[in-house]
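hey all, quick one before standup. I had two proteins in the batch that finished overnight and I want to keep them in one place so we stop losing track of which output belongs to which input. First protein below, input sequence then C-alpha cells straight from the run.
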Amino acid sequence: MKLSARLEKIVGLVDKGVRLADIGTDHAYIPIELLKSGKIDFAILSDINKGPLENARKEIMRQGLADKTDLRLGSGLEVLENGEVDQVIIAGMGGILIADLIEKKLGLCKSLDKMILQPMQAQEDLRSYLNKRGFSIIDEYLVGEDFRIYEIMEVRYDGGTQDIDDIYYEIPTKLIEKKDPLLPDLLDKKIRENKSILEKLERSSQGQETNKAIVDRKNIVEAKLMKLEEIKRNI
C-alpha cells in the first residue's frame, strides 16, 4: 500500500509505541501503516459514518490487524474516554470543525501527549482557536501533493496563550523561521486569494462608495495583502 505524501508525513509524526486514535479514519491507511511497521501496537479507529468505517474494517481484516484495533462509530473525539490514548490524529476535515471537535472533548485533548492536525481549510481559524484555548503548536509542516499544499500541525496543551498578529495565524512563524521550501507557494496562494476578494469587493462597491461595511472589508483585505507581500519579500 503506497501512501500519499500527506499521509506519509502524518505517519512520520506519530511517536513510537503510543496508543493512537485516528479520528475520521476513512480507509484506515494511517493506522494500518503504523501497525504493520511495528511503530505502534494498538489503535482506535473512528468515523461518524458507517460506510467509511466498514471500509476500514474490511481493510483491517484483510491485513490481519483485527486484534490490534478497535473500530468505533461516532462523532469526533466523543468516542474516546480519558486515558485511552496518548496521541490523536484528525486529518482531512475543515479547521472550524476540528476546533469544534476539540472543544467538545477539551479535557481529554488537554491530557494528550500531542495531537496531529491536518485541516483542509480555515487553518487560520484553527490556529486562533488553539492559541486562545492554551494549546501550543509544537511544529508545522507543508506538504505538496496533486497541485495542493497541505498544512499539518503538531499540537500540545501547555496552558499558555500568546499575543499573535492575525497574519501569523495564516502564515505561521514556524514556517517562516525554518524557511519551509513550500512557503513561497503558500504565500502566493494567499496573495492570489486576497487579490481576488479585493477585486470582488471593488466591483460590488461601485456606486456604493459610502457603504461602511464594504469600505471596512476592503481596508482589512488591503492591510492583509500588504503584510503577506512584506513576509514574501523578507523570506
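OK second protein, same deal, sequence then C-alpha cells:
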Amino acid sequence: MMYSWWKVLGLIGLWTIGIFSAALAQEPLTITYGEPWKELIEPTIAEFEQATGIQVEAYMVPYGVDMVEKVSLDLAAGTATDIFMVDSFMIPSYAEAGYLYPLDSYLASWPDWHQYFPGMQEIVAFGGQHYGVMIDTDVRMLWYWKPIFEEAGIPIPWEPRDWTDVLTTALIIKQRCPEVDAPLFIPMGTKWGEGTTMQGFYMVLLGADTPASDRNRLRKWDVGMWIGESPALAAALDFYRKVFVEYELCPVDPHYVPDVWGEWRRMMRAGEIGIGLGGSWEWAEFWPKAELPSVEEREAVLGWAPMPGSGAPGAPEIACISGGWALGINAATDKPDIAWQFFEILFTRDRLGEWLASAGKIATRKDVTQVPAYAADAYLVDVLRLMEYTTYRDTYPGYPTVSFYIQEATADVSVEGLSPAEAMASLYQKLVDEFGVENVIKIVSVE
C-alpha cells in the first residue's frame, strides 16, 4: 500500500520536529553564579543532571569579581547564560530592559511559592510580574553593646517602642558612660554608599510616616514619581540632625575614614558604640573571621532589637528593609521550561534550609524552621520575626542616582549645617534637574 505524498511529507515533518526537539533537549543548560553560593549550586547541578539527563555548563564568578557588573555586561552583549544570579535591586532595571523571563506562569502552579514571605515575593516583582526567586536575604536592626547597657543601668533585653525611646537611651549612655564615643551610630554621607541609604536612612524613613499611599518611601508608585518633599523625608532628616548635631550622639570622623565598614565594626567590638544601626550579617562580621568569638561569648556582649517606628499616628511599629540575591531566567533562553526544572530542584525547603544554616544566611521562606539545621541556630530563627515587617528599596530605574542624593542629604544636615527643610529643598531640586519636574512630587498633606 502506497502512502500519499501528503502523508509522506507529514511523516518527514514529524521526524524533523522530533530530531530538533531531541537536539534541543541535549543542549546544555547554562548558569552563572557566585562563589559564595557554590555549596548550594553544585549539588543542585549534580541532582538536576541525574534527574533530567541534561548537562549543565556552570560559570562561577569568583570572590572579588563584581557579579552585578559581570552579569550586566553579559546581558548587554547577548552572551548571558540561561540562568543567572541577580542582586534583587537590579530586577527592575533588567526587567525594563527585557532581560528577564517572567515566571508567573510557573509560580502559579508551584506549591512552594506561598511559603515565601510577602516581602520576598514583592522584591522580585516589577510591573505586575515576578522575575526571580529569592535565595537568601538580610534584615536590619539596632545592635547594642550589653556591657555598656549594664554600666548605664539600662534593662536588657532592650525593647524600644519608638524614636523617643531610642534617643533617650542614647542620651542616658552619653551621660552615664562618657567614654563611649558613639552612644548612637548611624551610617551617614556618601562614603558608605548604599550603606547610608539602606542601613541608615531607609530604616528611619520607613518608620517616619504611614506606609499608606507610599508616604514613607522615596517613590510614589501609584503615580510613578520620585518623592522630593514629604513629612517623612523631613522627619527622617530631622532624626539625623538630632543624632549628629543637636544631641551629638555620633561623631562625624568615622564616616570619612578610608574603610567606614571596618571602622564601624572595630568600634562596636571595642565597646565604643552603645547602639548602632546595621545588618543581620554583623552577628558574624563584627569580628574578623579568625577572631570570631563563640556564640555564647557573643551573646554575652551583643544584643539586638527591632528598629521602632517614630510613634507618629499610622507609622509602623517596626521598620525593616531587606536586600539579597535571587535566581532569574534569561528572557532570551530557548528552554525556559528546562530552566524552571532547575529552579524546582534547587528551591526545596530542605536544600535551601540546610545551606542557609551552614552559610549563616537569613531565610526567604517561612518553613525553613522545620529544617533541623536551621532550627538549631537560635539567632537565625529569632531574627526571622523581622521578615514579617520587612520591605525593599524603591529600585525603579534611576534609583542609584536617587540613593546618592539621599546620602548627600544626610551629610547636609549632619555636617554642613543645613536644616531638614533646606536639605529637602536641595534634594527636590536635584531630582527635578535629573528626572524632570513632571517626574518628581511633593507630598505636603495627608491624602
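Flagging for whoever picks this up: The radius of gyration is 25 Å. Confidence is low (pLDDT under 50) at residues 1-24.
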